[in-house]
Design goal:
CATH topology of the largest domain: Heme Oxygenase, Chain A
Largest sheet: none
Structural class: mainly alpha
Helix content: 55-70%
Number of domains: 3
Number of strands: 0
CATH superfamily of the largest domain: Heme oxygenase-like
CATH architecture of the largest domain: Up-down Bundle
Number of helices: 19
Length: about 400
């Protein structure tokens, strides 16, 4: 009985209730208290200003990208200037390099808002609520009233409401990490801001390159729903940090880049991600980079070349047309509902077999064990997986009679 009552609560009240604890933990931080007391050192103040400017800028762009009337109306409202954060907030965004690594987190959240605008547009309501209404409310104002009125006219499904709440909580926790690191100042490796588990590997800190890397990662997640389904939030952050590391290989000679990327491809294939996924990611990444910084076209070209070389290996076992056929055949076997739930599964299975033919022994087991889990998939799906692997493997024997398949 309790849950149905829970959902009868107006969304604006749910937002307030479910972000209350997050709000309190932000307000308890030394950085927030120093800000209110106007005692935040200039460099911390400047970094906070820049981070919020990046977030406002990204949210404004995300609103501009959507055609939803309520969202478009909200996006057109200019955020009022805040006494604690001085004027010109949106113009305070950095232009090229990030002088403070804490801004990397704000940048990642900004790109995520923009990809959310495509995937679940109404989640922008949650970001808007947290960033513009809840986090730094203007003294003596009640920003809720206008927002509550806008929400009243919206009939949201349960999943959409959850998306709005998730977005608000996400923004709170990202801003909390940011404030926590700004004052007293804490040093973290740049990659930490994308992925706490990434270790200290290098990533680009160039603003345009970083945005391109994040956009490419988000595009990969949109192309392969398998990523989100299997690896969740934790995996997404690895995609961000890996993508930002790949950018640093631009401009090195091809043999060296191939060595690095082959190593990564083998590692990921052994964890259930066929090299096809990396191949496609590299193509999108080099395109995004060239688009962001055309002057470095030549340097970024090496990523595209390596992707082509990887594709060349795969095509010697299963060419593009065969790959597509495996995909279509698999979809026909599992039926419309399941083929839409997990787009591209047939292609991934065939691609894993191609990796196996090139000597990556774990490529198939690491993918197939997950794809054949009866608790997750119905039996027609599991039969389709087995049939696809069988047929793809028969191609491998045809192509490599000389035992290349066993090579290390």
């Amino acid at each position: 009985m309790e849950t149905s009552h829970h959902h009868e609560m107006p969304l604006v009240d749910r937002l307030r209730n479910e972000t209350q604890a997050h709000h309190a933990s932000v307000e308890a931080l030394p950085c927030f208290q120093a800000l209110v007391a106007r005692a935040l050192p200039p460099e911390g103040h400047r970094a906070l200003h820049q981070a919020l400017a990046l977030l406002h800028q990204a949210l404004t762009r995300a609103f501009a990208d959507t055609s939803h009337p309520t969202l478009a109306a909200l996006g057109a409202e200019a955020p009022s200037s805040h006494p604690l954060l001085e004027h010109g907030l949106v113009s305070g965004a950095p232009e090229d390099r990030l002088e403070n690594h804490a801004l990397i987190g704000a940048l990642a959240l900004g790109e995520r808002m923009r990809s959310a605008a495509h995937r679940e547009p109404l989640s922008l309501l949650g970001y808007h609520y947290a960033l513009r209404l809840a986090l730094f409310p203007l003294p003596g104002t009640t920003p809720w009233s206008g927002f509550a009125q806008r929400l009243e006219g919206l009939a949201l499904e349960a999943a959409q409401e959850e998306g709005v709440l998730r977005a608000a909580v996400e923004l709170f926790s990202e801003v909390r990490s940011l404030l926590d690191a700004l004052h007293p100042p804490r040093e973290h490796a740049p990659a930490w801001w994308l992925n706490r588990d990434a270790g200290g590997h290098p990533i680009t800190t160039d603003l345009d390159e970083l945005r391109a890397a994040l956009r490419a990662a988000e595009a990969s997640w949109e192309e392969f729903p398998y990523y989100a389904w299997r690896y969740g939030e934790h995996g997404r952050r690895f995609s961000w940090s890996d993508s930002a590391w790949l950018v640093t290989l631009g401009g090195q000679d091809e043999a060296r880049v191939w060595k690095h990327i082959s190593w990564l491809g083998g590692l990921l294939a052994g964890r259930g991600m066929p090299r096809l996924m990396l191949e496609r990611h590299l193509l999108v990444l080099s395109r995004e980079l060239v688009h962001a910084k055309p002057v470095r076209r030549q340097a970024y070209g090496v990523l595209g070349q390596v992707a082509e070389r990887m594709a060349g290996e795969r095509r010697r076992v299963i060419d593009d047309q065969e790959l597509r056929m495996f995909g279509e055949d698999f979809d026909a076997r599992v039926g419309l509902e399941w083929s839409q739930r997990l787009r591209g599964a047939g292609e991934l299975l065939a691609a894993a077999v191609a990796d196996e033919c090139w000597g990556l022994a774990q490529a198939v087991p690491s993918l197939a064990s997950w794809m054949k889990e009866p608790a997750r998939f119905p039996s027609p799906w599991i039969h389709a997986v087995e049939e696809t692997l069988l047929r793809a493997r028969s191609l491998c024997r045809v192509r490599f009679p000389s035992g290349v398949a066993g090579r290390e």
